[in-house]
Amino acid sequence: MMPTLSAMLTSRMGDGTGKHEAAYLNTIELLINAFRAGSMIDIGCGMGRITQLGAGKIVELVALEPDAARCNWTRELVLDIPGVSVLELATSDFIAQNPDKTFDLSVLGMVLQHMPTNYCPGLMEDVATLTRPGGLAIISTTHALEKAKCFTYQDVSDARVSEEEFNAYASKTDAQDKGLPVHRFSRTELEALVPDSFEIAQWTQYSYFRPEFLQRFANVHQVEPEEIANVGNSQFLVLRKK
Ligand SMILES: C[S@@+](CC[C@H](N)C(=O)[O-])C[C@H]1O[C@@H](n2cnc3c(N)ncnc32)[C@H](O)[C@@H]1O
Description:
By secondary structure, the chain is α/β, with parallel strands linked by helices. The protein has a single domain, classed as 3-Layer(aba) Sandwich (Rossmann fold), CATH 3.40.50. It has helices at 22-34, 49-54, 68-77, 91-97, 120-130, 163-171, 187-192, 214-221; strands at residues 9-10, 39-43, 60-64, 84-87, 103-109, 131-142, 150-153, 181-184, 198-209, 232-241. It has an eight-stranded mixed β-sheet with strand order 1-9-10-6-5-2-3-4. A two-stranded antiparallel ribbon has the order 7-8. It is globular, with a radius of gyration of 18 Å. It starts with 8 loop residues before the first strand and ends with a strand. Bound molecules: S-adenosylmethionine (SAM).
């Protein structure tokens, strides 16, 4: 049986049995603790795993999820926890309804790589609008070497499609027969999306390939195994709003 993606990745922390995303999740927990008395927005909360980290810890937490089923799922998870609102809204709708509202901490976790490329700059501007001056945002997404950045599909991971084809597929959310669209971002591509109103405080790669699966990932990334031996499958930025 094919191991799950999680089973093929490692945090490289301790004996490697912990969560492969530990570097990212630990940073979110640190920031939640730093802003305990303040506010946080989880943008594109999906099934609520980041929302759950903040719920009951930070005084005010808003989670946005435009997909009704995922929104309801997350709402159920945090139903009895005070200070949490889970809203069936995209950022643009929330900003229109709450024009002056800003947060100490904004999280955009694993959203960008599934979006049409022409949607990403506006979404990042929305993150900036929602973050107060001096506040922080954390943005996570896929990561690939510059030469291995590409557009592909979750269920056909060695496919390579043009940006145009990717965007057309990513826009048809009701007919994605090859799984989610996946944009494998290089670091340069991600940093190029950062609005001028932010400064980059930190860049980190995480979720490394376990050595026994390196050849498999090398095939997927179309590189030699040694080229990705020290490359994380994901990356995050911590941004400070000027
Ligand atoms: C892959 S899920 C990520 C879930 C979650 N953040 C996590 O890390 O587990 C991406 C989610 O972003 C949502 N999304 C896309 N554009 C959005 C926007 N402008 N505002 C809020 N959510 C958005 C999608 O509906 C989708 O559920």
